[in-house]
Amino acid sequence: MNDLEIITLGCRLNAFESEVIRETAGKAGIENAVIVNTCAVTAEAERQARQAIRRARRLRPDAHLIVTGCAAQIAPERFAAMPEVDQVLGNLEKLDGASYGQPGARVAVQDIMAVRATAPHLIEGFEGRARAFVEVQQGCDHRCTFCVIPFGRGNNRSVAAGAVVEQVRTLVARGIKEVVLTGVDIASYGKDLPGAPSLGSLARRVLALVPELPQLRLSSLDPAAIDDALWRLIAEEPRLMPHLHLSIQAGDDLILKRMKRRHSRAEAIEVARRARALRPDIVLGADMIAGFPTEDDAMAERSLSFVEEAGLDLLHVFPYSPRAGTPAARMPQVPAATIRARAAALRRIAAARKRAAFGRFIGATVNALVEQMTLGRSEHYLPVRVPESAGEGEIRRVRIVGADETALIAEDGR
Questions:
Q1: What residue spans define the domains of the chain?
Q2: Could you tell me the pLDDT band of residue 130, with boundaries at 50, 70 and 90?
Q3: Amino acid 1: pLDDT
C-alpha cells in the first residue's frame, strides 16, 4: 500500500504544488513517506512547519520524512539539522520525480534566483477540494522590505496561456466548478512572455476557451498592477467572481514607502472605489501588517481608519515578524507587546467589517459552492451554511436568511 502523506502549509500556490507532488512522487513509486510542504512568509509560519515536522515523526516513526517548500528553500540547513528529517528538497526539486528516487541525497536545493522560466505542470485532479488552484506564475520581481518570499520562489516567471487553459479544461472535465488563478504575484503575469500578455487577457482567454467553467476567481492582487483588461472583465464578466483580495499591507504613506510598496494610501482607496463602482456587490479583502518597524501610534491609527475609508470587508492580519536578510529586519523594531496590541485592534475592526458584509447579503440569493457537507462559500467568498447538500463540489442556489459570527445562514433559493 502506498502510504504517501503530504502536509501543506501556506499559500494556494503551495496547495497546487502539493497536488503536483502527489502525482509526481506517486509515479516515482514513493511509499511510506511524509512530505511537508512548508511556508516562510512569517516567523510563525516557520514555527508551524517545525511543529508539523515533529508531529509527523511522532505519528509516522518509520516513514521517510521529506521537507520542502519555501522555508526549506531559504534555510535548508536548518531543516536538515532536525533529527526528525530524512531529506530536504527545494522548490524546484519537489516538482521533479527524480528527486524522490534519491533518498541518499539528504539536501537537494538549487539556486532558485538563477531560474529564468517555469515549466508548466499538469495535474489530473485536486484531492479533497471543491475548488481548484491553478498556477499562472512563480516568483516576484519586487523587493518589499519585509518579504523573504522572492528568496524562496525566485523572480517572476509566467506560465504560457495555452498551458493554463489546458490545466483548467482538465480540471473542469473532472468536475471542478471553480478555479482560482494563483501564483506569488499574479498581477505581474505575462511580463516575461512574448507580447507581454496581462492577467486580464489571460483570464478572458480562460473564460472564452473553457465555456463550461462556471466560476473563475483570482488570488491576491497587487493594487498597483491591476491592468485595464482585468478592470473590463470585472465590469463585464459574471463568471469572474465578485471578490478581490488586495495586497495592501498598511494605510500610512510613510510606512508604505518604507515597505517599498508601489501604491499610496489614496491609490489603494481609489482601487477599492473603482472596484465597487464597476461591481456594486463586490467583496474586498486585504492583507494588513501590524507593527511594521518605525510605525508609531499615529501611523497605526491611519491604518485603522484606512480600513473603514477603503470599505474593506475581509482582513488577513499579520503581526510583523522580522525575516532574516530583509531590510525591514534592520530597521528600528516596534516592541512585541505593541505589535500584539495593534494586531488585536486591526482584528477588532476586521470582525466589525465582516459582520457588516454579512449584513449586506441577508435577504439576497447567492450561489454557494459546497465545500464540506453543509458549509460552502458564496461567489463573494463569504462562508455560507447551506441546507443539506446534494454533494460536495456542487453549486447551490440559496437565499440568505441570517448570519452568525462565522457564516451566512441560507435556505434553498430555487
A1: 4-110, 131-359, 365-412
A2: confident
A3: 42
> H-type helices in 88-146, by residue range?
none
Q: Which runs of consecutive H residues, i.e. helices, occur in 237-329?
A: 253-259, 265-278, 297-310
Distance between CA atoms of residues 116 and 120, nearest Å: 13
pTM for this one?
0.94
Helix-then-strand count for the chain, H and E: 12, 18
Pick from 20, 29, 34, 32: which is nearest to 101 by CA? Answer: 29
Which spans in 81-221 are helix H?
Answer: 149-153, 161-173, 199-209
**Residue 175 reports pLDDT greater than 50:** yes
The CATH code of domain 131-359 reads 3.80.30.20
93: left (phi over 0), alpha (psi -120 to 50) or beta: alpha
**Cα–Cα distance measured from residue 368 to residue 227, given in angstroms and rounded to the nearest whole number:** 28
CATH tag, 4-110: 3.40.50.12160
Lowest-confidence range among 60-64, 100-104, 133-137?
100-104
Q: Average pLDDT of 140-151?
A: 95
> 142: buried, middle or exposed (CB in 10 Å: 19+, 13-18, 0-12)?
middle
Closest to 217 in 3D by CA, of 243, 237, 197? 243
| Grid cell digits, residue 349 | 475592526
Report the distance separating Cα 409 and Cα 402, nearest Å: 5
| DSSP symbols for 186-226 | GGGTTTTSTT---HHHHHHHHHHH-TT--EEEE--B-GGG-
Give tens-digit pLDDT for 355-397: 999 999 999 999 999 998 889 999 999 999 998 866 888 999 9
Strand 375-378 and strand 365-372: the pairing is: antiparallel
Determine the residue type at 319.
Answer: P
- DSSP per residue, 357-394: HHHHTTT-EEEEEEEETTEEEETTS-EEEPSSPS-TT-
Burial of 140 (0-12, 13-18, 19+ CB in 10 A): buried
